[in-house]
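Subject: Interface between my chains keeps coming out wrong

I've been trying for a while to get a sensible model of this assembly. When I model each chain on its own everything looks fine, but I need the whole thing in one frame so I can look at the contacts. Pasting all components below, labels as-is. Any help appreciated, I'm running out of ideas.
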Amino acid sequence: MPVLSDQQVRGLFAQEAEVRLSHLGQLLLGLEQTDGDRTAVDSIFRELHTIKGSSAVAGLPEVSVLAHELEDLISDLRTGGSQPTPDVVDALLAGLDGLAVLIGIAAPGTPPAPPAPSAPPAPPDVVVEPGENAVSAPPPVAAAATAAGVVMVPLERLDELNRLVSESASAHLRVGRMLSDRYGTDPASISEFNDLSRALNDLQDRAMRTQMVPVSTITDTLHRVVRDLARAQGKDIRWDTRGTDTELDRGVLLRLSDSLLHLVRNAVDHGVETPAERAAAGKASQATIRLHAMQLGSEVIIAVTDDGRGVDLDRVRQEAARHGLGTEGLTDEDVAALTLRSGLSTTAFVTDVSGRGVGLDVVRANVEAARGRIEVRSRPGEGAEFRVVVPITLAVLRCLLVEAGGSRYALPFHRVVRTQLDDVDDRVRAEGRALTWVDRQAVPVSVLAETLGETAGQRTDGPLVVLADAERRHAFKIDRLVGQRDVVLKGLSQVLPNVPAVAGASVEPDGSILLVLDPPGLMQRARHRHTTGEHEVEEPPAGRPRGSILVVDDALTVRELQRSILERAGFSVRVASDGVQALSLLAVEPSDLVISDVEMPHLDGFGLTEAIRSDAALANIPVLLLSSRSTELDRERGLHAGADGYIVKSGFDEGSLLTAVDRLLGGRL
Amino acid sequence: MDAVLLPVGDALYAVPTSWVREVVTTPALTRLVTAPATVLGLFNLRGEIVPLLDVAALLGAGRTGPVAFAVVLDTRLGVVALSATSFPARRMLDAAPGTSDLSGAATYRVGRQLAVLVDVQAVLDAVTAHHPVSPPGAPHTALHTTGAGHG
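Reply #2:
Try treating it as a single job with all components included. I did that and got this:
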């Protein structure tokens, strides 16, 4: 084996050191938050010791000397001679920056002379432009680092690569089918074919990963910024991250990293108060800035939250007024959102740390360039949250595969609450629709194929999949469960209109297309189908009327509208224009149901309901109140008066009226 | 004008060649649930997911029967395909001899048939906006006297 040249040795050392320095950076930042955890101190010592040894071998004595000095600092911590005070950590971090510069792997902008605390090192997993190394590093080592294999690849080329890899895999499957169809040979019995299968699978896996990076690739940089800035401003801030293993397209994340940096700087700079101010406001002296990432459907949400003073709404209002914008009638949330508008960055929202004055409008523009959006939530005195929501055009999404109406669909796993057998004993009906018990909660049930507009009426005896969005749950009946799998979600063509209930599609290994459903859209569609009675409301039987209804309303239009809807549905209808007239009609002949307005002359709906309940001959007639008053108090008052149902007129439509009527009359006729 | 002819049942449509990338035989379609009827489905074109549009439905001329061919178009918004019921031949069309009574679009004589020129951009806009193109008498039409290639 040939002996490695000096240059090759340094190249190897640069690669090794890059990983070790990144790890050291994390350990040091952690040290502050864990208050000198002994295991961490030992790890830091080991890493530094290794760097010292390797650098000596690589012929870089100045690296070795610096590593040795840092090792001494850590030794003091180990023996208890010193504590991991911020000053000590400052010195150690600055030392790391110095090592990076000496080794030639420092991020651009890092000062050449070690040791000096300054800009954070580049996140290790993000592709680094070779040119940047060449600028900031001593020539021989930089060349080696470049040669070590960091290459900028245009995203389009990765896209193309991914597509071709999938295509190869599906061509391979077709060859397998051909072997068995035409030659009667089981392809699995041919070892060469199996080798190729394995290689293609691995290739597909690797190719896909080239595009996706976890959010954690940039959080170390952000942590360092928060820490350094807080120290400089005499603030005490705890950095907290959640969900940083959330993966998203590398291109999207790179575009976002600047915006997130600005949001984090903003939070330290303008959001978080000094410890004295916090104490005066009765808050804990240590503030928290949190970065929380999560994937929701085909979007990734990254929220930067602080528990500082919140957005200065008065100031924003003043600025808005100065720009001729009226803020009367705007909610606090709307006013906070104004900070994202161009030209409306108040000084409180300009990040001028390190002299780079950038307003939030620029952050917004950058986020929008990544096809995302940004939202602000702020509570005065309690803090602010900036949410960046970006789509992931290429995201690995764990999905539950189901079959419904004879077709296969994928349901994003994070929306699936559970799957369960559709037990008849668990089924109940309310408000004209079917429900089932899920964890002691009654959850509406729909047939998935029908919700998707496929094969209405076809019965299936498969299980239920319970889905959830932020607010509710909904169970969908399917033909059968197929399994679970990671799918690469691709957005649908931009030519297509917005397709409700479909989040995207994925190309299957056999070349077929798998639709990935969008649970919130699906649930909304199921609810809509129910409330509009598109499916659930039965056709009225011909002949005998389904029941008699008295409609009471002083508005002629409403009265007649209801009459026409109800008569078309097969009911016999009488009308009255106020409570008094209604009572006299009921005295002549009772109805099966009374539908009444609330506000009417002479006797209103509440009064009418009470009168009906107190008359023994009429007391059992169900009363449905229909009102433009939508407050909970009105509803309660109606139910207190003895009404059986309460519909708000603004939400009034044919479907909801008939559903309510069916519900009230269902058991009686 | 250099065009690809799309036979749809008895009717014949013409698309300027500048739009056309390739022609695919009997694509395996996946129905796109909840999409409008003008979208016949999606198919896999070497790893790309391509929507197949019903050209007859888009032009208000009924529905396409079984799809035998898909004419794949390159557009600004990505790749889409139009359906055809028999082989889409490439043809040089002479100057427009007439216009359609229904839409005012240019018609060309092709043997014993008339081919109606499709304004591809208008068809795409109609799909995106989710409304049918050229209801009879409406001013907005996908059938124009000149075919505009994409830039």
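Reply #3:
Confirming on my end. Chain A has five domains: 6-115, 154-209, 213-391, 396-532, 548-665.
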